[in-house]
Every structure is written in C-alpha cells, then in structure tokens.
Amino acid sequence: MPGHRTGWLWVGRGVAGLAVSGLVVHLWSVGLDRADKLGSAVGGVLAAVALLAPHLLPAFPRTSVEATPPAAEDRGPGSPVAVDLRGSQGVQVNTGGTNRQHNTFGSR
C-alpha cells in the first residue's frame, strides 16, 4: 500500500508545518526579547534533561550478538571456509577459531 504511506507522510508534513507556523506566530506576538529569554530557558532545561536522562531511565541488560554462520556447529574448529576476497581491501575473516587477513593497497 504505497498510497497509504504517502498519505501519512503528507499528514506529518502538514503537522510539522502547523507547528512551525504556530511557533513563529507565538514568538512574534510575545516579542523578540521575551522570545529570546524563553528560548534560552527552555534550551537550558532541555540540556539538563538530556544530560540526566541516561541516569534516570532504567538500564536494559546488554546482550552480545555474534554473527555465526547457521552451520557453525557442524564444522570443527579450524575447518576451512570458502570466502571470496577478490577485489577487496583490508578484509579480516574470523571463522571457526581461525583468523585470516587479506590486505591489498594501491592500484591493481
């Protein structure tokens, strides 16, 4: 449904345009000096919240994700794996406990 997404995109653009227009009208009505003071105060509060947010939010447990081929259990450690390294520069492959590095620099 590409048309469905395009419709929501235009709704989002309209809401953003209304928000910016409303902000401009509000800042025009209160005056430049007061708008500057208000912006500085709001910016300071937001900066403090941004600095404190990582400490106030609950910590999520970290999970380590390792990229292993699906058939890694079938191979023994050190079993050869076919990897095409042609046309690459600075590739390091670590599979099954073996570490192979292939570096080529300059023109071919």
How would you describe this structure in keywords?
elongated; 2 strands; mainly alpha; 108 residues; single chain
Please specify the SSE layout and strand pairing.
Elements: H1 2-30, H2 32-56, E1 91-95, E2 98-102
Antiparallel strand pairs: 1-2
Describe this structure in words.
The chain is mainly α. It contains 2 helices and 2 strands, in the order H-H-E-E. The protein has helices at residues 2-30, 32-56; strands at residues 91-95, 98-102. The protein has a two-stranded antiparallel sheet. A hairpin with a 2-residue loop joins strand 1 and strand 2 (98-102).
Major pleated sheet: 2 strands, antiparallel
Question: Could you give the distance between the termini?
Answer: 47 Å
Rg result: 28 Å
Low-confidence stretches: none
Q: What is the residue-mean pLDDT, rounded to a whole number? A: 75
- Put simply, the count of helices is 2
Query: Strand order of the main beta sheet, please?
Result: 1-2
By secondary-structure content and strand pairing, the structural class works out as mainly alpha
Fraction of residues in helices? 40-55%
Name the helix and strand elements from N-terminus to C-terminus, one letter apiece: HHEE
Percent of residues in beta strands: 5-15%
Q: Report the principal-axis shape.
A: elongated
Number of strands: 2
